[in-house]
Amino acid sequence: MTASRLGLAVLTAIALALAVLVALDTPPAAVRRSDRVLPGLEPARVVRLAWTRAGETFAIERGERAWRVAAPPPAAGPVDDGVVADVLGALELASATRWGGAADAARVAAAPSALTLVVDGEVAGAAARWTVTVGAIDDATGLAWIATGAGRAARVEAWVARALDRRVDDLRRRVVVPVAAPTAIEVHAGGVDLVLSGAPAAALWPAGAARVAPAAVAAVADALAALRLVTILPPTPAPARPGTIRVLGGDDVVELEDLGACPGAPGRRAVGGTAGTGCVDGAAWDAVIAAARRIADEPVAVVDPAPLAAAAVERLVLADGLAIAPRGGAWRAEPTAIGAAPELDAGRVRALLAALAAPGKVAVSPAPGGPAPAPALTVTYAGGATHTIAVVDATRVRRGDEPFTLEVGAAAVALVRAGAAAVVDLTLLAADPYLLRAIEVVEGGRAVTVTMGDTFDAWGSTTGVADVAAIGRVRELAGGLVGDEPAAPAPLRRTLRLRFDPPPTAGAGPTTVELEVSSAARDGRCVVTVDATSARVAAPACAALLAPLAR
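Now predict its structure.
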């Protein structure tokens, strides 16, 4: 065993020595050098690209916000971001499958179809320039030669040559309106005058401004987004009074001029402006004008029939001044002038939003001179727009000072008028009814206590025979007593103290909940106060709380 270990150690030492000798004997020329064709080039630091083919040159330059065609002037306009990204990516990733010499570089440059690309940028804070001449693609090998100056050439994969081989029309952006979410649209063309602004969008009519149904706004925005430059034109003189379209979205501003029929293509429309000069499909242009005309000419048909856009609401101030807002996935109330913020009932908040987001029926507002609508609820949207929802009558509301009313129904109007009562959590009691052990009733200076015996339906009383049915109804309420609406504390008629056994939790003890109950009103309802929260309770619950528990 010892001899075997010694032999293994000797063999290991010999192998290591041979490896060292091989490494020391490797000539420097065999060390692999970088195969990047343009080392040091970084796309983010490239500022200009110029192509020359058959004596003609065109160039693009990086501006403060985007690339634009800089030459020749007739082709001026914005550059397609995807195309320039492909060119810069090819320059950065171009790798040599084989390096060539001066003869290969000269052959590439002398080819009649040769394309030269001059790249201006920056390396380590200093100006830098790279010159690339692209040769023809060899279909048999899927490779192409690229000359990089100073007598150097490289064989690269065909995709690199294809990405660099561009013409000026390839570079121009074809999308006319690259605004994803317009915040304002103005159309003054084709006999249409329309101004849309804000979020949610409102239109300005001669009678006044009003919010437009989202589908109608989307129809205009989608039609604008579908415009594409089919052909590129040199700058064309505009008519004396050209039609114009203006689209805003964040910091983006797009302006179009209607230049009339496209020269030589009657089925197309010539446009100019921010996107440069070119022709768009005539049917696509007509779709923009038609969508805009529908809003401009048919206000009652396109006014948003829903009082509010629930998905975009950022804050609501209710009729009685309580402010609520979405926070952390739930709605929260803001502290009031007289105390802490009340708890909200998520289901009741959703019901309020759903009622006001449901479409109503749009009608022109009655002539001035009638009673002014009462402001009842103020809405603030994520985009900053704010308006009131005012109650006109028992079934109608008005949004801000719009010249229209919305028929939404009595239930929705009642929710608007209710204020905090529509959304606050009115749960007065929620306990495990099977832990209820005793009930003490204090009324008129007299106290009666009923206590559970060995079973749930065995109860005894300190003054007589317990009414098991009446006690059972109180026990049901212990599992969930919810008020109908907030109320001020009313004169006390009866106090009930409900004593509960401790739950099966380590360290838990018995608890007592005290309910203060008023007399029933004519409608059978009463006011119940629990832990300083008072609410009006439905008649059946009041009857159970005020019934004798012993005979």
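The radius of gyration is 40 Å.
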